[in-house]
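Weekly structure sync, notes
Attendees: PL, DS, HV (note-taker this week)

Item 1: Beta-glucosidase
DS walked through the input record. Source organism listed as Bacteroides intestinalis. Sequence as pasted into the shared doc:
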Amino acid sequence: MKKKVICSVLLGLMVSGQLVGADYIKPKKDKKTGISYYDLNKNGHLDIYENPAFAVEERVRALLSQMTLEEKVGQMLTSLGWPMYERQGNTICLTEQLVREIEEYHTGSLWGFMRADPWTQRTLTTGLTPALAAKASNMLQKYAIEHGRLGIPLFLAEECPHGHMAIGTTVFPTSIGQASTWNPELIRRMGRAIATEASAQGAHIGYGPVLDLARDPRWSRVEETYGEDAYLNGVMGAALVKGFQGEFPRTKGKVIATLKHFAAYGWTEGGHNGGSAHVGNREMEEAIYPPFREAVAAGALSVMSSYNEIDGIPCTANSNLLTGLLKERWQFKGFVVSDLYAIGGLREHGVADTDYEAAVKAVNAGVDSDLGTNVYAGQLVNAVKRGDVQEVVINKAVSRILALKFHMGLFDHPFVDEREPEQVVASTEHLELAREVARQSIILLKNKNELLPLNKKMKTIAVIGPNADNIYNMLGDYTAPQSESSVVTVLDGIRQKVSNDTHIIYAKGCAVRDSSKSGFQEAIEAARQSDVVVMVMGGSSARDFSSKYEETGAAKVSDSHISDMESGEGYDRSTLELLGRQRELIREVGKLNKPIVLVLIKGRPLLLEGIEAEVDAIVDAWYPGMQGGNAVADVLFGDYNPAGRLTISVPRSVGQLPVYYNTKRKGNRSKYIEEEGTPRYPFGYGLSYTSFNYSDLKAEVVEAEDSCLVNISVKVRNEGSRDGDEVVQLYLRDEVASFTTPFKQLCGFQRIHLKVGETKEITFRLDKKSLALYMQNEEWAVEPGRFTLMLGGSSEQIYQQKEIEITKRYTFKM
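Item 1 (cont.): predicted structure, written out as tokens:
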């Protein structure tokens, strides 16, 4: 009955195409100051917290002084957003659940209000289109302001790892592909595009970037990471943060970045999602923390605590991590949000017997917001009244959240312009950017006898494989439902690229995981008739509506229902071979002795042993996004010279794992009885349609009393027959140190474009932070001694190296 009343009350606010956000509630004008403001507490005059002329700190104090304990705790709740509305056609109604959230819990934030996917059961017809999302978010804010005692607007947080996870938005390559561009400026531009689209629909927070190191490709969430290297992760993460947030305070089209997952979530045990992290404090300081530290330094204003534990302490209850390191040592100014239901998950860890104990541990550790509100909503008020949590702890957490609401302009401009989404979401500019990110992410792993690029006037091309013409297998996890016309598959891209005289024969052949061979004969016959075979194989993170899901949203592995999904959150693996009949289909087509180009669409490194010898060219596209088919075709036919480089090593077997490049001196570099100890393809690897030469490496050491610099230069020349990009990679080795150090460590890179015959001088500058070693008690030091600089095209292709010497000791904290 109550739900019907809500809908009828909101009839005047239903989607009409006529209303703009500001029309929902008219601001008032203060007679004394002439300031336009929203009378949020409905008392008829301009309060300090309503007055934009006051500093944010003063507005926060003024608002906090008027709040009850229950209202404060409400600001620490981040509820699930999608149950707060219902859509029927183009009519949007707010639900009874939203009424309860505002009236009973004073909820301050929602997560995933615009999210659509099989887990939320929001489809193209029941979810929010961009235009409807803007209208619905305005309805939300109007309700929150009018029905909350103090009129505090809602924070809306959305998943934004490779595009806003909502219907109709631009889908970019997943993070492992983004990192493969080795182009942080491009990723900053991508972040700006994502933020523009999400913000236009009413979002304020974007979940991303994921800064976990991916050291085990069996882990289901490798695709969400930037790979195995701390330095590269930090550079890419900082770039996305700057794209999301720009310069703070907020200007139009920005969202707060939420760093995930703090910390060591990707340092998994056995490749299991959320598994224990066995890692020492020194490795935490030198490998796990640096990407987060760099992103915080870049201005990130939200951090998510992770599910896992480190050395017996779950991250969501770790005060040394969340308060001592993050908030005090790094001077982080934003707020900490738990991963979904992670606070209640402390009971599963066995460190809390009840939700009450879990809430006390989490909030005292420094978790400011409970994602899912399964614990804080029912426990924190009692915890304060019983003295187990001091109200000052609550005040600090709420102040962090409110300060960002003020900075984001929610109190002064709570509504969005409902006409804007049609202008910016999935705009031509953003689709072109998605294609460029995809093109720059593509890695050429093999090109025997220069088979690639292909001739556009070739007579017959066979396009075969489960990922050749499947829109969802192009996109990766955390992707909303798509219209058929929104995604360009590899088959689409090839068809658009070749001449009218070229005959394209398509055959799926097999599925990613299903064991059926019913399509083999059609595929083999297609290959038999062709001049070249393009086989599009790999994996999938595409969720479907028949799958089952954990409470946290991770997919459950099912034996009764075989979808294509073999990657994505919850789909950890014990092997890394191509699943289903894919390997067998490659072998059967190979018997025809036709030239074969293998295009890999996938979310994690897969084993290529045996396959590598049976195909002539290998193109790794990861999950390239909605413009991925065009990008792959651009590379296959030479309209784009590939320059993507691996950011995670490709192993020869699961038995090698872990096989990351920057192991310690006595690390995993020795030979096994059965095989080499080195990866099939190393970190930083990737081929080009041209060739490059390195020469004239120079290094100058400049030492002062408190600092040291190393100025480095090298010349790079394009000696091939095509214009192209090279990724110049700088590695460092500390020859003798007080503690063990990596055999080599990336400390700089540049992606440069060189025309045929062109030479460029590339420069790098290393400061003491680049040369330092973690000592103890938060102290870092550059020790006197020898360092080797290595420059080249991958971690194993070093073309120039030079030894330098530091004569003084430099100590500092960071």
